[in-house]
Amino acid sequence: MIQDIAPRPISATDVQALPARDFFRMQNTPTGSRAPSPAPSVSVAAARAAVRPVTFRHQMRPLFRTFLHHPATQRMRFWTLSLLGVVWAAPLTLFGLLVALPVVLFRGHLQLVHGHTVALLVRGRFADFLLRRHPFGPMNAMALGHVVVASHDGMSTRVLVHELAHVRQAARWGVLFPFAYLASSAWALVRGKNAYWHNRFEVAARRAEKHF
What we know:
Layout: H1 12-17, H2 20-28, H3 44-51, H4 56-68, H5 71-88, H6 90-105, E1 109-114, E2 118-123, H7 125-132, E3 141-144, E4 147-150, H8 157-173, H9 177-190, H10 200-210
Parallel strand pairs: 2-4
Antiparallel strand pairs: 1-2, 3-4
Helix pairs in contact: 5-8, 8-10
């Protein structure tokens, strides 16, 4: 509770006890009040930050981050990007299915691979026949869009990781992937290097093997 106190008039004794500058300051100050103290120095940025209202965007930002990192959101994002990659590389995948059809008909095996990448793994005798006559030489496997054609003897986890890297490249480049692959091989030949081992897509696939 604040109690009102009537101001006491200044006596002659008080005037004698006060220095001259304090006496004139009290005479120029309204009765019952004190001289105003200097305001604390506050920067303009700090003052604006103190009075800045909390907007709806600032309130929703933590919720939005939680939503993005939720496992269900991550799964939805993965399948959405995978579907877009399948559509973008659909012509290459269609060609891979045409190659896989005789492999399956000649007692081959068809398997769905889904992890970081979605692909169809095809193995069989006709696949061994095709891979032994690959233009770059005998191969253990090759990726055609989202279809991986592999041999029975040379198939391993390392080879599968290598080919799934090519599947992701096809999903990223789409129908341009064969032309980009051949251009990279041609550029390696121009520099006097091996068209396969120094192809930038093969280098990236071998790098993916090390991270497995």
